[in-house]
Specification:
Layout: H1 2-76, H2 88-127
Helix pairs in contact: 1-2
Transmembrane segments: 35-63, 95-119
Keywords: Membrane, Transmembrane, Transmembrane helix
C-alpha cells in the first residue's frame, strides 16, 4: 500500500513537472512571438523609411528638372541664369545636406522607438516572471 502511494505521488510529481515544462514552453513561445512582432515592426519602419527616401529622391529629381526648365527659360530670354540670382549647385547641395539630416533624424527616432519597445518588452517579461 505504501509503495502504491509512493508511485502515485511520483506520478503526480511527474505530471506537475510536465505541466510546469509546458507552461515554460508556452512562455517561451510568447516571448518568441513578441520578438517576431518586434522584428515585423522594425521591418515596417525600415520599409517606411525606404519609401520616404524614395519620395525625397523623386522630389530631388523634380527640383532638378524644374531648375533645368527655369534655366532654359531664362536663357531663352537672353539672360544668363546666374544673373537672375539662382545658384542650382548651392540649392542642390543644401537640399542633399537637408535630406541627409532628415535621414539621420529618422534613424534616431527609429533607434528611440526600438529602445522603448525593448524596454516595454522587458517590463512585461518581469511582470510575468
Amino acid at each position: 500500500m505504501l509503495l502504491l502511494l509512493l508511485l502515485l505521488l511520483l506520478l503526480l510529481l511527474l505530471l506537475l513537472l510536465l505541466l510546469l515544462l509546458l507552461l515554460l514552453l508556452l512562455l517561451l513561445l510568447l516571448l518568441l512571438l513578441l520578438l517576431l512582432l518586434l522584428l515585423l515592426l522594425l521591418l515596417l519602419l525600415l520599409l517606411l523609411l525606404l519609401l520616404l527616401l524614395l519620395l525625397l529622391l523623386l522630389l530631388l529629381l523634380l527640383l532638378q528638372n524644374q531648375d533645368l526648365v527655369r534655366e532654359k527659360s531664362v536663357k531663352s530670354r537672353g539672360i544668363l541664369f546666374h544673373q537672375v540670382g539662382g545658384n542650382p549647385d548651392k540649392l542642390h547641395s543644401n537640399f542633399i545636406f537637408g535630406l541627409l539630416g532628415g535621414i539621420v533624424f529618422l534613424k534616431e527616432i527609429l533607434v528611440f522607438l526600438t529602445f522603448y519597445f525593448l524596454l516595454f518588452t522587458l517590463h512585461i517579461a518581469k511582470r510575468h516572471k
